[in-house]
Amino acid sequence: MRRLLSKTKLSANMNCRLDGNCVKAFGKAIHALSRIGDELWLDPTVKGLALRSVNSAHSAYACFLFSPLFFQKYSLQSTSEGGNEPIKCKLTMKCVLPLFRCLTSIERNVEQCHISTGPPKDQVMIQFFCRHGITKTHNLRFQESEALQAVFASHLCPNTLTAPARLLSDMVMHFPASQEEITLSVTPLRVTLKNFYEAGSDHMKMVYTEMSLHPDEFDCFQVAVESDVTFCLKELRGFLSFAESHCLPVSVHCSAAGKPVCFSVEDLALEATVVLATLTDSESREPSQPTASQTHTTPRCAEASHLAVGSCEANIREPRGTPAVTELVASSQGSPIPPRTDGLWLPVEDCTNAPTTPASSMVCSLLFRALFSEQDSDPANLTVLACYSDEEEENMEEEFARSPSL
Amino acid sequence: MPLLTQSQADDEEYVLVASLDNARNLSNILKAITFKDHAIFSATPNGLKVTVEDSKCMQANAFIQAEIFQEFTIKEDLVGFQVNLTVLLDCLNIFGGSTVPGVSTALRMCYKGYGYPLTLFLEEGGVVTVCKINTQEPEEPIDFEFCSSNVTNKVILLSESLKEAFSELDMTSEVLQITMSPNQPYFRLSTFGNSGNAHYDYPKDSDMMELFKCTKTQTNRYKMSLLKPSTKALALSCKVSVRTDSRGFLSLQYLVRNDDGQICFVEYYCCPDEEVEEE
């Protein structure tokens, strides 16, 4: 992949220091992110260091933002050329994860960790200062890359639940590790988690698990719209494990089937979010689903459990008006979903690869907006958000600007 | 447990008889050098040396002194033969290698001399197995001409500090670079892999550093594929000495304690991969 360092973009260097306890938390975040995707974006900003990952089918996204408070020291320094845009690094998970693989050993041995970018320009240095005076230094090459960011207006979600991470972990524990998808059903009276099975599968061989919680079990319970959302469980487990280790309450934001579901935790030092695409309710596919003739409008996201990936890398992918994904994506129900021809599909690097999970085969991608979209993009292609209702569409541009960036 | 299945007369035919109450005292240490099928056995009145070589650039030796054996009788000054090491280990573990305390496999290893197989009598719980392994003409082990007087740099480290580093080594790196110096970074292991490089630094005053004697700064690279097998010896050992000589040849010596707390040695020699400018 070609480097994207454009001539006009000057960069700043990040330098941060974590103490031993925080290194373990940092490592746990990387473990959680490794359950999502094969690449890790390191995005140092003034708000803190963001770690992001997205799966190849673009149906799961996670972001861990460590505020400067998390670090013993956190600084962004302009380079001598006077640039003030921090470097955006893309690392492969398989070169970062081994450094943090054994968390118990890190806890035992690592006293301090330094992470810094440049010089040289394309390397990030991760240095562990360990017991007995031993120092381990890793210089990892990265690709300069615009980070993908799923924009999710959680404050617009009709349903919000907050519960201790332990509660959710305990519920999720009842599902076997092989369980791909689960359905979260929310009504004003109760919350149910059950495993999702395909219509055609052999019911005699299935173990059907369902558990319910009373609203009282939640720290916060706001349900405006009854909904059933089905999403991939595997991608959530790492996040729940992280949340549990920090004893943080988890907020769940969801709405109708087909719209993404968001899980988040936060405290003073960090914010972590996982956004997962959900299956559309195939029985209620409405005729108002966008067709080729509606290329001029921004389609309703209710049906768009396929969401497009916004252009994120200037020279590699440019938004195109014409649909690029023309092959059929096999759905888990066996009937292929016809390609979307509404102009929303943008070339997605890996979308043409055979998706490995049923959820990703039904539903392809979340919408990503480039963090720094300097190029003029076709608004119709990039302004589709994880939006929720028609009346939002008129305010789309404003909401877009106001949505909390993850 | 006594293994008396042979009459006294047979014993006179053997040029080498070595007995162990616990065959693991031999098999464990041999596992540390099993990266090739064939091994050269050299027995002298001092004990047994087992040698495995790779590519004419690397050699591993396991030393089991005569004192470790319950019986060690040798009728010549040097008895040498070559056997398939994998087969030998399979035989030594023929009873399944159980680690139940109090239960061990007894071994009596006998060799009649050139042209004869290596005979193993193994007994556990009253059950006796006899194995005969074909021997070959022993090759001459390479003499790396590594002598103490030529050693420029030497450190002794506690193995536990190196074990983690070796298990984490970036295997996409073709070489392992070892830097030893009287100055910073003192002792450094480096890899150069697909995603970048990594350095493991051990300062001379670390409490893991038992001995530090470096006279000049040397950086040498060794093929990772040749050194990676030494991780097994490292895992068994409690201490390791790392020495380089003026040619950049590497000697790793591992101090291994067996099940009974006795000391054995494993040694690795390796040629440097390329000439690196000495600073």
Automatic annotation (TrEMBL), chain A:
EC number: 3.1.11.2
Job of this protein: Component of the 9-1-1 cell-cycle checkpoint response complex that plays a major role in DNA repair. The 9-1-1 complex is recruited to DNA lesion upon damage by the RAD17-replication factor C (RFC) clamp loader complex. Acts then as a sliding clamp platform on DNA for several proteins involved in long-patch base excision repair (LP-BER).
GO molecular function, one term: double-stranded DNA 3'-5' DNA exonuclease activity
One annotated Gene Ontology cellular component of this protein: checkpoint clamp complex
Organism: Xyrichtys novacula (Pearly razorfish)
Catalytic activity annotation: Exonucleolytic cleavage in the 3'- to 5'-direction to yield nucleoside 5'-phosphates
GO biological process, one term: DNA repair
Gene3D superfamilies, per database record: 3.70.10.10
Cellular compartments annotated: Nucleus
Main location: nucleus
UniProt superkingdom: Eukaryota
Keywords recorded for this protein, A-Z: DNA damage, Exonuclease, Hydrolase, Nuclease, Nucleus, Phosphoprotein
Annotated family: Belongs to the rad9 family.
Name of the molecule in the record: Cell cycle checkpoint control protein RAD9A
Composition-biased stretches (Polar residues): 287-298
Matches recorded under Pfam families: Rad9 (PF04139)
Annotated spans, Disordered: 280-300
Automatic annotation (TrEMBL), chain B:
Gene Ontology BP annotations: DNA damage checkpoint signaling; DNA repair
Subcellular location: Nucleus
Family recorded in the similarity comment: Belongs to the rad1 family.
Protein name per Swiss-Prot or TrEMBL: Cell cycle checkpoint protein RAD1
CDD domains, per database record: PCNA
Short name of any one Pfam family annotated for the protein: Rad1
UniProt function note: Component of the 9-1-1 cell-cycle checkpoint response complex that plays a major role in DNA repair. The 9-1-1 complex is recruited to DNA lesion upon damage by the RAD17-replication factor C (RFC) clamp loader complex. Acts then as a sliding clamp platform on DNA for several proteins involved in long-patch base excision repair (LP-BER).
One CC-aspect GO term: checkpoint clamp complex
Subunit structure: Component of the toroidal 9-1-1 (RAD9-RAD1-HUS1) complex, composed of RAD9A, RAD1 and HUS1. The 9-1-1 complex associates with LIG1, POLB, FEN1, RAD17, HDAC1, RPA1 and RPA2. The 9-1-1 complex associates with the RAD17-RFC complex. RAD1 interacts with POLB, FEN1, HUS1, HUS1B, RAD9A and RAD9B. Interacts with DNAJC7. Interacts with RHNO1; interaction is direct.
Superkingdom: Eukaryota
Record keywords: DNA damage, DNA repair, Nucleus
Gene3D superfamilies in the cross-refs: 3.70.10.10
Database matches in InterPro entries: Cell_cycle_checkpoint_Rad1 (IPR003011), DNA_clamp_sf (IPR046938), Rad1_Rec1_Rad17 (IPR003021)
